Each structure stands twice: as structure tokens, then as C-alpha cells.
Amino acid sequence: MKKHIILLSTVLFSTSFLAQNKGLVANSQSPYSKLQSVGLEDVKWTNGFWKEQFDVETKNTLPYMWRLYHNDSISHAYKNFEIAAGLMKGKFSGPSFHDGDFYKIFEGMAATYAVTKDKKLDVQMDEAIALFAKVQRKDGYLHTPVLIDERWGTLGPEEVKKQLGFEKYNMGHLMTAACIHYRATGKTNFLNIAKGVADYLYEFYKKASPELARNAICPSHYMGIVEMYRTTKNPKYLELANNLIDIRGTTNDGTDDNQDRLPFRQQTTAMGHAVRANYLYAGVADLYAETGEKKLLDNLESIWDDVTYRKMYITGACGALYDGVSPDGTSYDPTVVQKIHQAYGRPFQLPNATAHTETCANIGNVLWNWRMLQITGEAKYADIVELALYNSVLSGVNLEGDKFCYNNPLNVSDDLPFHQRWGNEREGYIKLSNCCAPNVTRTIAEVGNYAYNLSKEGVNVNLYGSNTLNTKTLRGESLEIEQQTNYPWDGKVTLKIVKAPKDLYGFFLRIPGWSNGAEVAVNNSKIQDKVISSTYLKVNRKWKKGDIIELNIPMPVELMEANPLVEEVKNQVAVKRGPLVYCLESNELPANTSVNDVILNVNSKFSTDFIELDNRKLLSINATSSVTGDHSWDKKLYKPISSKDTTSFTVKLIPYFAWGNKGKGEMTVWMSH
User: How far, in Å, are 178, 365, 516, 536 from residue 533 at the CA level?
Assistant: First the structure.
């Protein structure tokens, strides 16, 4: 099972080939992908939730990040490229993944340019590409910490030169960004640099020892090299991608933290560092789409079950523990019990105040599930994409788009008697750990590409939001749709057909897994087919201009409970409405009341109203609650339950992604009842 490679003859770039490969994942020719991406430019948000978010991205986040990463008094990323290019003498400064951070910002710019055609972005990207070209070594190698040392001899004993540096991670983000840039602009200047990197990696992995070759920390290069294969059709890149999986777990120095103590084909549960894990799973899904190796998909599905049903937060967040051990502390032998940081943890181990849930891990969950959706066509994966995007990804950035979270706890308490490594307030620049901010930047720019997929049977509608889709079917026919909705605040969605194929064509509407009682009508005539949650409902007919498909999804307030094995939230409830998880902040409470003291009345007559926060309208939920008069825990670990002096009051819950935008305070998702 070592080699499962489809060798296709290299083809020259052509206009038609580029037209078929202009999405985030260029899988139009992937033989084991059931769904295919639409072009980056094919979807444009017109109003509502994602249009507001995209406007924040283009007006605030992207310009802010571009300036920040050019400000060498804060971030040295761009300056490192200038030093490596020989424009000035200096030392490498910043985290070892600094190059990759800048490539992520660049990818966000390219994805944005695909939609807006903003000439300023094009100029800025060309400026950066010219610098990358000056940095790149003749053999294709491009990693500023090493190149600065080679040029100036100034690096010193840096960790980045050691076996588990972020060298390949940076190269992976370079390759992905270059592919997106090529699809957005049609230019090959960055893609040519990426070819040099990919060729270098191919030669490196042919000659390197297994111990050196396992240098795959946070393996974005798995996705990157498959995307290079899809873009160039160079068969050696697919060969390399398969080899990257083959070498995992074949050395004596592998770790659970890095998912390479065991070969991937022996892994059936999620383990170790959650970002590295989710990036690995996304890369393996990409490889499966090209090779169809059943064992890869079997393992991915088993791992997905483990994550979704035992290790994922209600917000779609991953990576419960700041620090943990694996496997399960059954031996004192240090080769068996290994320390893991930012860890998935054990099944049902989901703390709230100490939840790590790095934004990058949550984005990795989106990347993985997006690929699983396309190779299987199953709606359950789109459910997770939606869940994470609306909750644990968007919580990683403030409403104004210029402050960011590294971790995303589900409870923030003033009385927590210890300091955690990362704080509970968003920051403009998270020193030494700012990887999440560029990742959110590119992700929000690219949400439009998740909204639809194409198949031989029709078009899948994955995400709901007001937009226009203007694309070509897989048979080359024009397809234009206007979607109107106030989702996620309202469950009514209308799809107006502007252009569609003349013959029978299918619309596959995602019926969210959280929904119950959804109805679908075409031109005001209700469809009698059974509507099943977490599936795609096929509406197949000959369409004419002006036809209207209407989807109505009830959005009641729902109280959620967790599996009783999740000890941290036993006998507590969380509040959801539609795809959104809600939370309670302390600024909504009486003076000297903690969010941890609140008892939610589950029989509340829940009501909703819109509030305005940082120029955004958000739907809030009103409920009744109470606290007892005796809620002091000073020098107390346990005390009798008190029912005296109970005070009742109304609380206002807000979407979890919007917590922390009113300044410092407490917050909780789970509440006693």
C-alpha cells in the first residue's frame, strides 16, 4: 500500500484548464471528488451577515494586517524577507512561522482580489512577489531564517534550524497562496516561485533520511503540494504527497504530539496537537481525492467520528487542553507517555475556562471538513463547516476586524486563580503567537467559496447568505443564481434562477443538521418530498428565468445539553438558535454577580431582539434567570445549597462569536439550570 499514484501526463496551462480550476480547492479533475469547487470570483456577497463580514475584511482587516506586517517594530515578517533578499543586513526576528503568517495574509489578498479586482491589491501582491523572487535560492529553497543565516551569518543557535522547525509549514502556505494567486489573477509570477519550492521538496524527500524527512510540524505542505499537483498536473508532486504520508511513523523519534509516532494508516482516533492534526487530516483528504486509496478515507472517517462525537466543543472548536499526555497515562515509561501541548485530549475531556481551542485548530476543522464534503458529498461535513465558521472561527476576531484571539474559551471567570499562557482578551498583535490572525484574515476572505459546489447532477447550496452565483456547470453551461436571506438571524432563504441549463438540473439544498421541520417550495408550490436534517434535498427540474426556490427553516431557541461523560458541564445547558451558539456576559448582570452564579430558567419565554454592537446588528436572546443571595465562595471549596434570598432578573444572551467586544468581563456558554 506504499504507492497509490495516478500518473497523468503533464499538460500545458490553457484558458480552459484555468477556468476549471479557480476555486480554493482546484478539484475539477480529481477523480475521487464527488463535488467540485466553483471559482473564487463566482460568488459575491450582496447584503446581510457575510457581506458585512466581508466589508470588515476589505476595509479593516486586510489593510490593518498589511500595515502590521510591514511595521518591523511590531512584526518582523516582511523585514525578514528584505534582509534575506540582501536589501539590508540584519538578523532574523520573530517566530519561526513568520514567513507562513505573511503568506496567509497574501492568500487573503489574492482571494479578495478575485472578487473585488482591486488594483491596489494587485500592485501590493506584485511588490511582495518580486521580493520573494529575490529571496529564493537557486535550488528553489525559500525559508528566511536559514537564508538570512546563509547570507549574513547572523542567525545564531535558532530553533528553526532544527528538525521540527516550521520550514515545511511555511513552504506549504507559500504553495497554497501561490495557487490562489494564480487562479485569482492568471499571473504565473508567484506560481513559478512555488514550482521552485515544490521541486526543491521533491528532491529533498528523495534524498533525505526518514528522520530528517519527518520534519512535518503543522503540515500545511500536504495541502500545498497536492494543490500544486492540481494546478500544474506535474505527476511528481502527487508522488511526493503520497510519500509524505508513507514516511509518517517510520522512525524511532516520532511523537503523538506531531501525529507521527504511528504510521497514518494505523491511526483511527484524533491525537496530539489539534492544529497539526487537522492540517494533516485535510492534507490526507486532498490525497484521497487524487488516489482513491480506501484506507485513507476509512481512517479519516474514523477520526472524524472520534472528533465530532467525543472531542469537539459545541462551537466546533478543537484542541481542549493547553497540555496533556498520550496515550492516557497508563505507564510511567516516558516513551509511552508523552507530553502534548494544545492537545485534543481524551474523549469527552472538554474543559471550558481552560479550553485551548486555538483559532487555527478551528480553521483546520473547516479545511478538513470542507475537503471531506467534497470527496463524499455528505451534508454532515458541511454542518461542521458552518458550525465552526459562525462560532469558533469568527470568535477569533473582533467585530471591527483588527483584534484577535489565539484561544477561544467557553468560560471567562475573574476568579480563576491562575494565569494562563494566553489571555482572554483580543489583541492587535499576539506576540510570538500571531499565527491565528493571518489565518482568520484569509479564511473570512474565502468564505464565499464554501457557499456552493458543483457536481454532474447539479449545484449544491452549502452555506446560506445573500449572494450572487455566476458560474459554469460541469458541462460548460451558464448558471446564475440570486440568493436572498437574513440568515443566520432568520431561516427564510430564497433562490432566484437567473440562468440555468435547458435540460433537467438539480439544486441540492443543505438541510442543516440542527434544523427540524424545514420546508421547501418552488414558485410557491410546496415540495412534498420528505425533508431530512443533515442531508441535501434534491430539487430537480427544467428551470426557467425567474423561478424561485424558497427554503424555510424554523429557528426556535434551543436548550442544549452535553453527553453526561462531559463532566465539566453536567447539569448545565447551553443556548443555540440556528447555527449560532449564544453566551452570557457579565455586563448584562447585576453588580457583583458572576456569570457562574446565574441559574437559567429553562422555562423562560425566550424572546429575541436586535442590538447594535460596533456598528453591527446582532440578534440577542432574552431569558429569565436567578441567583441566590449567598453566592460567595471566599475560602470555600464546598457549601450547602442555598435557596434563600433568590433574586430573579432578565438576561440578554449574545452570539458567542461577538463576546468580548464590550471590553473586559466574564463570559460563559454553559449555565446552571
Answer: 38, 21, 7, 8
